[in-house]
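Notes to self after the Tuesday call (sharing in case useful).
The group wants a holo model before anyone commits to mutagenesis around the pocket. I volunteered. Ligand is arginine. Logging inputs and output together so the record is complete.
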Amino acid sequence: MKRSPPPGDAAPGGGGGESHKLWGGRFKASSAAALVAVNRSIEVDFRLWPFDIRASQAWAAALQSAGVLTAEESRAIHTGLGKVAERIKGGELPIESDEDVHTMIDRLLHAEIGDPASRLHTGRSRNDQVATASRMWAMAAAAAIDSEVRELQSVMLEHANGLTDAVMPAYTHLQRAQPVSAAHWMLSHFWPLQRDRERLASAMRAASSLPLGSGAIAGSAYRVPRDQLGESLAFAKISENSIDAVGDRDFIADLLYAIAMMSVHLSRLAEDMILFGSSEFGFVRFGDTFTTGSSMMPQKRNPDALEIARGFAARSLGAITSLLATLKGLPSGYNKDLQDDKRILFEAVDSALLVLPAVAGGLAESAFQIDVMERAVSSGMMATDLADYLVGKGVSFRDAHAAVGNLVRAAEEASCELDELPAARITSAHSMFGADAREWLNARASIGRREVAGGTGPNAVITQIEAALALITRTPYS
Ligand code: ARG
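Result:
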C-alpha cells in the first residue's frame, strides 16, 4: 500500500529518526499537537510488539497464499520483521511520529527492507491488527496469572498438610462458631482460587478467536486462508463476523472479571491472615521478608503485602467497571474509545502479577500457632454437638436446641464455660441427658463426627487435600 504523506511528513521508507505515518493522504494540514498527544497510544501498546510481529509474519504468508505477495516479497517481509524484532529487543525506542506500536513496526520494517514493506498492509487494518495482538497478549497474560495462582495454591497445600491435626475456631459473623481443622480453614481459600483458574481458562478460550482478515470492518477483499492463519497463530477458531470482530472486547471483560474475582478472593484471604496475625488473635506469626516496620514505633511488624493485596481488589473492581462502561452504548465496529482497553487490561494484569507472588511469599513464611488456635476453642462452640447428642437419643432438633440454649444461658449467668456447669445442671436441662453428655463437648470429637464429604472430619480433609493436589498438577486449559 503506497501512502502519500501529508505535507511536512517525511517520505515513507525512512526509519531511524524520520517521521512515519500510516494515513494522511486526504489531509491538507498536519495534525494539531494536542491531537497527536491525546491520540498517541504507543506508551501503552508498545508491549504488544512481539505479538504484532508474529501476526504480521503470518499475515504476509496469508497474502502470499491469496496471490497478493510473491514468495520473494513474503520472505523479505518475514525476515525483515524478524530483524525489526531484534532491533526492538535490542532497545530500539519509539520516535515522535510513532502513533502506536503498529506504526512503529511498519516504520522499522520500511527501514529494514524498503519497498516490499509497503505491501504488507494490504487488506488489513489496524482495527483487526490490534484486536489480534491484544487477544494474543491476553492469552499469554491469562497463562502467566494462572501459573502464579497455582504457586499460591501450592503454598496453601503445604500449610494444609502441616495443619491436619490442628484445631481452630471457625467463625460466622466473626463470632466463634464451631471447631474445625486448621487445614480445612486453609483449604477454604484454595477452592475459590481453583474457580478463578477455571475463569482464567475460560477467558483464554474467549480470547482464542482470530479477528485478522476482518479488515477495518467489512472483511478483507483478498481471499486469505483465515483458517490456516488462525492455526498458524495458535488460535482455536476464527471470528464469524468482521463487524463484531473489530469491536469485540468481551475477552478483555472476561479476563478482567476473572482477575477481579481472584483479587476479591485474595483480599478475603488477606483479611483472615491480617486478623489472625493481630495480637488479639495470635493464630499466626508473620515472617521477616514480607512484612515491614514502622519509622516511629520500633515494635511494629506490619503485614503490608497482605494489605496491598486487599487494596488491589479495589483497583480490579475499578478495571472491570471501567471497561464495561467503555463498551456500554458504543456503536458497532471499531471506535477509538476502545484504544483505552489496553491501558485498563495491562494495569490489572501487571498488578495481579505483582500481588500474587507477594501473597504467596507472605503466606509461605507465616507460622501458624497451633496452641493458640486450639486454646481459642471454647466448649460453648460444641453446643450444636450437645444438641446432636439429644437428637441421637430420639429428641427433635428443635427441642434439643432449646434445652442446650438453656444451658448456654446458665453458663453465661454463672460466668463459666459450658463444660464447667455441674453435671446435675446439665442433666436437669433435659430428661434424655445422661452422664456421658459432657464428652460431646470435646472439640476433636466434634471434628471427628464431621466426616461428611466436604466436612472437616480428618479423613474428609485428607480426601480434600488429595483432590486439591491433583488439581494443581495440571493446568485447567491444557
Ligand atoms: N492504536 C489503536 C488502538 O489501540 C489501533 C487501532 C486504530 N484504528 C484506527 N482506525 N485508528 O485501538
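Two things stood out.
Residues 41, 45, 100, 126-127, 130, 334, 338-339 surround arginine (CB under 6 Å).
The chain has 19 helices and six strands.
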